[in-house]
Design brief:
The chain is mainly beta. The protein has three domains: about 80 residues, Alpha-Beta Complex (Photosynthetic Reaction Center, Chain H, domain 2); about 40 residues, no CATH class; about 80 residues, SH3 type barrels (Roll), CATH 2.30.30. It contains two helices and 16 strands. Strands 1, 11, 12, 13, 14, 15 and 16 form a seven-stranded mixed sheet that branches. Strands 2, 3, 4, 5, 6, 7 and 10 form a seven-stranded mixed sheet that branches. Strands 8-9 form a two-stranded antiparallel ribbon. The protein is globular.
Length: about 210
């Protein structure tokens, strides 16, 4: 990745390879101990559940509108999958098979009792967590906004700011919350700041964040 200034990753933007479109960034994967961005989860358009884990070293360039990878679409498709889907055993026998011998595949129409949906789970590096767009952000005195993306130092990959859409439908603004203000990422992002503290944060240009 280019080595100048801060780098912004807006969750939801288009991701392109050297020869075409790979999909969209749907999550950011963070090491919560080192507070570094390690991977992007990129999912092909209209192919839910086929997201790939893109190591940050494969990112050539990132802007507010697009992320460019230093690999082809084919190489992207061969990256490790970001999700695992498990099909639950059917709840009743069917056509002479016992439940343990069946998988509940809802689109096969196996009849009543066999429509349990598949379970999809994140498949992430050990100890790492994902951050999603529109995930709730909580100040010490209540919800204050939703996640829009992250800003990192391109030299160390360390997350420096959380991009947050603060406010309500009218008069909302995007602000950059310093990473030191984040106290937890379980059940939403939690801050050490009050609502007023966040509301008082300026709309900071990305170039001014490093």
């Amino acid at each position: 990745m280019e080595d100048t200034g801060a780098t912004q990753f807006n969750i939801g933007v288009e991701v392109v390879g050297t020869d075409g479109t790979c999909g969209r960034m749907i999550r950011a994967v963070v090491d919560p101990v080192a507070r570094t961005l390690t991977h992007l989860v990129v999912e092909p358009e209209h192919r839910q559940g086929l997201g790939r884990l893109v190591p940050l070293d494969l990112v050539l360039q990132a802007s507010a509108d697009q992320i460019t990878l230093r690999c082809s679409v084919k190489a992207f498709e061969n990256l490790e999958r970001a999700e695992e889907t498990h099909f639950l055993p059917a709840s009743a026998g069917y056509l002479g098979y016992v439940p343990e011998e069946l998988l509940a595949l809802p689109y096969y129409g196996l009849g009543p009792g066999n429509t349990s949906p598949p379970v999809t789970e994140d498949s992430l590096p050990m100890g790492e967590v994902s951050v999603r767009r529109d995930e709730q952000v909580h100040a010490v005195d209540g919800e204050i906004g939703r996640v829009q993306g992250l800003v990192i130092d391109p030299r160390s990959h360390r997350v420096t700011h959380l991009l947050l859409q603060e406010g309500h439908l009218f008069g909302h603004k995007e602000v950059a919350v310093p990473i030191r203000a984040i106290t937890g990422i379980d059940d939403g992002i939690r801050l050490s700041l009050s609502k007023k503290d966040v509301q008082d944060l300026p709309q900071v240009a990305i170039d001014a964040l490093h």
